[in-house]
Amino acid sequence: MPKPTKGPRLGGSAAHQKLILANLATSLFEHGRITTTEAKARRVRPLAEKLITKAKKGDLHNRRLVARTIRDKGVVHELFTEIAPRFENRPGGYTRITKLGPRKGDNAPMAVIELVQEQLAGGAATAQAAPATEAEPAEATAEETEAPATAAATDADAEAKAEGDEK
């Protein structure tokens, strides 16, 4: 049985906190990422993870359980048809919290909570191989961009010397 939060709550009362978290989760599933305070981001993360886990099961009972929290039918549909299949092979950790600087005005610590975009395909071996293949072309393009720049600089130096010799 869920226990009420002890101490200060988001929004004042337990009912208001429940509504705030439901609205934050709805916005997270609708937009993919939201900017909010660190406290709210930390509180909405477990709720969002549990809702995604229920959506991964995909049956009617879990759809109704999710619809209790997420009241927008369009967002529930998107959660079950688009978001849950993306995390089918992932055993958890569907969200990421990135801290931002303080908010201008009241200096509240801000954070971005977002759905993780990369898909887990076959384990850590493929995850490590993918960045290596991306890094190689980046190095090659860096060398290619440096080569014409140095060639242009050498041509400019040669022209300057030629002009100096002529005078």
Structure description:
Helices cover 63% and strands 12% of the residues. Residues 123-130 have low confidence and may be disordered. The chain is mostly helical. It has a three-stranded antiparallel sheet. It folds into two domains: 14-115, Ribosomal protein L17 (50s Ribosomal Protein L17, Chain: A), CATH 3.90.1030.10; 121-167. Strand 2 and strand 3 (109-115) form a beta hairpin.
The sequence of SSEs as H and E is: HEHHHEEH
Number of strands: 3
Q: Which structural class matches the secondary elements? A: mainly alpha
Count of alpha/pi helices: 5
Q: Report the C-alpha radius of gyration, rounded.
A: 26 Å
Strand line-up in the sheet with most strands = 1-3-2
Distance between the termini: 92 Å
What fold name stands as the CATH topology of the largest domain?
Answer: 50s Ribosomal Protein L17, Chain: A
Q: Which parts are unreliable, with pLDDT below 50 for 5 consecutive residues or more? A: 123-130
Shape: flat
Q: What is the mean pLDDT? A: 82
Summarize this, please?
This protein has helices spanning 14-31, 38-57, 60-69, 73-86, 124-166, and strands at 33-37, 95-102, 109-115. With 167 residues, the chain is mainly alpha-helical. The chain folds into two domains: 14-115, 50s Ribosomal Protein L17, Chain: A (Alpha-Beta Complex); 121-167.
Secondary structure layout plus pairing:
Elements: H1 14-31, E1 33-37, H2 38-57, H3 60-69, H4 73-86, E2 95-102, E3 109-115, H5 124-166
Antiparallel strand pairs: 1-3, 2-3
Helix pairs in contact: 1-2, 2-3, 2-4
Question: Key terms for this structure?
Answer:
167 residues, mainly alpha, 50s Ribosomal Protein L17, Chain: A, 3-stranded antiparallel β-sheet, 63% helix
